């Protein structure tokens, strides 16, 4: 029994590497330490991939294993996968992340690491009983397509920061599509607005400062805003037949947009300073 619990804990840890917080944290480290413009582009792709995944789930509307057999997954495992099953979001996000890095840098070892990560996350989703193998294959295919297209496509130019309120407001109608889609849209618009122009850290101390401080502040603020959003009112408009837009939906959109802009753009600029010129811009 203890061995089984240990294995389940290990599998859950692996599966979280493909979750939103897991992939975004890895993208942040890449952006802060190695490639600010490339990291910004990668983050935008992750946001678009997330929105595409949510759309495909609704289009196919295929059940998860625990929808067919209630005993297929534990409550803890179910919490890592909500909504329809196809394609797997964790697998798609992992394939988008590592596929982009491998194509962007053209390194065989990145392909090897990426293949291992996608396989590990995919197997963990099936092991936990939250996806069928076909969901994993679908997530892998869509993630690689997004990564391949994203590597070739130019990154959108970063607008001046003063336009941020207008840009965030322009994408606000995305909240009508629901909480998860609103958060994905907020993540994407926040990244489009991120400057991606900071200097790279040249010392270990600087790398630790920007990484440990940035992750602590980002996820600390994310959690600290939960009780604030619980006190927000629902907006009195929405789709016909509904009571309006829930606070955690429109609040989640704004939280995602602002915290993404802070983490990918403002925090590293404050800590590391700005580059005189961004390569490729």
Task: Outline the structure in words.
The chain is mainly alpha-helical. It folds into two domains: 1-154, no CATH class; 156-281, no CATH class. It is built from 13 helices and no strands. Helix 3 (36-60) packs antiparallel against helix 6 (89-105), helix 3 packs across helix 8 and helix 10 (179-193) runs parallel beside helix 13. The chain is globular.
Topology:
Layout: H1 2-16, H2 20-33, H3 36-60, H4 65-68, H5 75-78, H6 89-105, H7 108-127, H8 133-152, H9 164-170, H10 179-193, H11 204-224, H12 226-230, H13 247-272
Helix pairs in contact: 1-7, 2-3, 2-11, 3-6, 3-8, 3-10, 6-7, 6-8, 7-8, 10-13, 11-13
Features:
281 residues, 13 helices, 69% helix
Q: Summary?
A:
This protein is mainly α and 281 residues long. Helix content is 69%, strand content 0%.
CA(first)-CA(last) distance: 56 Å
- Average pLDDT metric: 91
Strand-residue proportion: under 5%
Gyration radius, rounded: 19 Å
Describe the biggest sheet? Answer: none
The class by helix and strand makeup works out as mainly alpha
Share in helix? 55-70%
Mass-distribution shape: globular
User: Would you report the number of β strands?
Assistant: 0
Order of helices and strands: HHHHHHHHHHHHH
Question: What's the number of helices?
Answer: 13
């Amino acid at each position: 029994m203890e061995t089984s619990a240990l294995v389940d804990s290990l599998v859950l840890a692996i599966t979280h590497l493909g979750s939103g917080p897991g992939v975004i944290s890895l993208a942040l480290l890449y952006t802060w330490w190695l490639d600010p413009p490339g990291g910004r582009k990668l983050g935008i792709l992750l946001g678009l991939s997330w929105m595409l995944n949510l759309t495909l789930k609704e289009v196919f509307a295929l059940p998860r294993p625990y929808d067919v057999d209630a005993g297929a997954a534990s409550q803890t495992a179910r919490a890592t996968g909500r909504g329809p099953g196809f394609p797997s979001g964790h697998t798609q996000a992992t394939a988008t992340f590592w596929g982009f890095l491998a194509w962007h840098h053209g390194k065989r070892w990145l392909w090897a690491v990426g293949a291992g990560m996608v396989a590990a996350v995919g197997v963990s989703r099936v092991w936990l009983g939250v996806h069928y193998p076909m969901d994993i294959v679908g997530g892998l295919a869509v993630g690689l397509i997004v990564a391949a297209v994203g590597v070739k496509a130019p990154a959108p130019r970063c607008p001046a920061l003063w336009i941020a309120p207008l840009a965030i407001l322009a994408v606000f109608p995305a909240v009508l599509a629901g909480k998860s889609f609103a958060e994905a849209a907020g993540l994407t618009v926040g990244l489009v607005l991120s400057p991606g122009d900071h200097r790279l850290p040249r010392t270990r101390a600087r790398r630790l400062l920007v990484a440990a401080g940035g992750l602590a502040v980002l996820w600390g603020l994310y959690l600290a805003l939960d009780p604030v959003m619980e006190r927000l009112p629902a907006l009195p408009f929405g789709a016909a037949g509904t009571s309006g837009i829930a606070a955690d939906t429109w609040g989640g959109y704004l939280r995602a947009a602002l915290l993404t802009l802070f983490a990918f753009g403002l925090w590293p600029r404050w800590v590391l300073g700005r580059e005189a010129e961004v390569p490729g811009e």
